[in-house]
């Protein structure tokens, strides 16, 4: 089934991973779509407004309607958020960075839209997860994304060992991240706890001028100089 003629469309809008280089990361096609929208559901309002100003300094932000949907949202009011679509107007969903609905609360709204037979269109744009995997040299056929790892050290160690075991059993890449201010601590724990022949990719500042994507065995990482990842957006990928 397709959506009815009276309905609008939901566009999933990728945003910058950092920096200001719109031309490098956001296709002109996306910008044309975005210019035609006046309703947005966003993870973070200030970030969304800045992004719209970057793609078009004359964007009529004050004439637009914004709703925030993030980890602080108490209850998903899908009827309110989807009302413009069901009235015939299209809306855009934006994450704070990169692709919406991947490790992002927007997925709940899209699930509600699918239940209502509303057309959902994903636009092309930057993904830190897939960019890191593409450049890592690790397995792109079988992989798992774990999102943020546990904070408590014992749980974190168990998770690392579980991922390493799963990788060895399935010959798969394991992708994960941490809060930027804990990156260095996570990296050190990975080097202390993983097997020497486990391969580990560190991918930081993807799409920025100081982009860093390097894969080495744990053994070789221990012998190599390492960049400071403190407060840098980064992903880690391991494969046993």
| Largest beta-sheet details | 5 strands, parallel
Rg, Cα atoms, Å: 20 Å
Strand order of the largest sheet: 3-2-4-1-5
General form? elongated
The CATH topology of the largest domain turns out to be Cobalt-precorrin-4 Transmethylase, domain 1
The total tally of domains equals 2
Euclidean distance between termini CA atoms:
44 Å
Question: How would you characterize the overall build of this protein?
Answer:
This protein has 240 residues and is α/β, with parallel strands linked by helices. The radius of gyration is 20 Å and the shape is elongated. The mean pLDDT is 93. The chain has 9 helices and 10 strands. It has 2 domains: 114 residues, Cobalt-precorrin-4 Transmethylase, domain 1, CATH 3.40.1010.10; 112 residues, Methyltransferase, Cobalt-precorrin-4 Transmethylase, Domain 2 (2-Layer Sandwich), CATH 3.30.950.
List the helices and strands and how they pair.
Blueprint (H helix, E strand, L loop, with lengths): L8 E5 L8 H4 L2 H8 L3 E4 L2 H11 L9 E4 L9 H9 L4 E4 L11 H10 L3 E4 L5 H9 L6 E6 L4 H18 L2 E5 L5 H11 L5 E6 L7 E6 H6 L10 E6 L1
Parallel strand pairs: 1-4, 1-5, 2-3, 2-4, 6-7
Antiparallel strand pairs: 7-10, 8-9, 8-10
């Amino acid at each position: 089934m397709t959506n009815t003629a009276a309905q609008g469309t939901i566009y999933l809008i990728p945003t910058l991973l950092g920096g200001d280089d719109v031309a490098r990361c956001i296709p002109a096609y996306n910008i044309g779509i975005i210019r035609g929208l006046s309703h947005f559901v966003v993870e973070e309002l200030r970030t969304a407004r800045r992004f719209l100003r970057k793609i078009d300094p004359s964007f009529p932000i004050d004439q637009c309607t914004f709703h925030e949907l993030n980890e602080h949202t108490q209850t998903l009011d899908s009827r309110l958020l989807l009302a413009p679509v069901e009235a015939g107007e299209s809306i855009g969903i934006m994450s704070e960075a990169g692709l919406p609905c991947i490790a992002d609360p927007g997925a709940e709204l899209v699930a509600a839209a699918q239940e209502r037979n509303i057309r959902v269109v994903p636009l092309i744009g930057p993904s830190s997860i897939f960019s890191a995997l593409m450049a890592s040299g690790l397995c792109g056929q079988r992989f798992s994304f774990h999102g943020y790892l546990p904070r408590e050290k014992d749980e974190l160690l168990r998770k690392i060992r579980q991922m390493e075991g799963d990788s060895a059993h399935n010959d798969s890449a394991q992708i994960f991240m941490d809060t930027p201010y804990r990156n260095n601590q996570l990296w050190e724990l990975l080097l202390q706890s993983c097997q020497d022949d486990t391969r580990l990719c560190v991918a930081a500042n993807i799409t920025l001028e100081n982009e860093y994507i390097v894969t080495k065995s744990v053994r070789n990482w221990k012998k190599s100089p390492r960049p400071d990842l403190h407060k840098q957006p980064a992903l880690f990928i391991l494969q046993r």
